[in-house]
Amino acid sequence: GPPAVAPQATPAPLAEPNTLVSAMSETVQSAADQVLQSAQSVTDYALELIGVRYKFGGENPEKGLDCSGLVKYVFEQVTGVTLPRSAREQAKVGEKVDLDELQPGDLVFFNTRRFAFSHVGIYLGDNSFIHAPNRRSSVKIASIDGRYWKKRFNGARRLVGVMPGVVSIEAAKSILQSLPAMADPSTDK
What span, in angstroms and rounded, lies between the C-alpha atoms of 160 and 154? Predict the structure, then answer.
């Protein structure tokens, strides 16, 4: 038979009535992408701290980090948001998340000292989390399925994309940049 003719791809006209809607849905989509990217940045940054020694009350990698110090440091560096200092206080921010809905960047809490939310880590995905365990150890990855941790799991909180400001600075910029385009879709006249 005759060769199949590919339909010509016509460039989309710019100022269709639904441009505003698509610009808005793109903004929402890009905001969603940014949240994922932000979560990715949080976990990437945390992973770079593997091996940093544990120090009770430690808030920076040079001197050492404790569990909540690690979380506070990572979120401050990546998102610019200052979290409360203790694991117990950190357990009050963001939104509660169920164990089976964990996403990378979520905070996971454990009862390791006979009181709720006494230990915190950052969930990485694949049932693993990164944390600063104790004086005998340095920052490392553990499995949430491990017998010790499973038994002591206390709950999780989501900060990325939930708390104002916990979308990276880059994300905020790109969302802002997409706003003028929404207000005036007919730029190409």
Answer: 19
Percent of the chain with pLDDT over 90: 59
DSSP for the chain, written as a single string = -PPPPPPP-PPPPS--TTHHHHHHHHHHHHHHHHHHHHHHHHHHHHHTTTTPBB-TT-EETTTEE-HHHHHHHHHHHHH-PPPPSSHHHHTTSSEEE-GGG--TT-EEEE--SSSTT-EEEEEEETTEEEE---TT-BSEEEETTSHHHHHHEEEEEE-TTTSTT-S-HHHHHHHHHHHHHHH------
Amino acid at 60: N
pLDDT over 90 (residue 149):
yes
Is the model's pTM score more than 0.90?
no
Give the pair of three-digit tokens for residue 7: 């339909």
- Which residues are catalytically annotated? 67, 119, 131
Answer whether 149's CB lies under 8 Å from 134's CB: no
Q: Given its phi and psi angles, is residue 167 left (phi above 0), alpha (psi -120 to 50 degrees) or beta?
A: beta
Residue entry with tokens 């460039």: 11
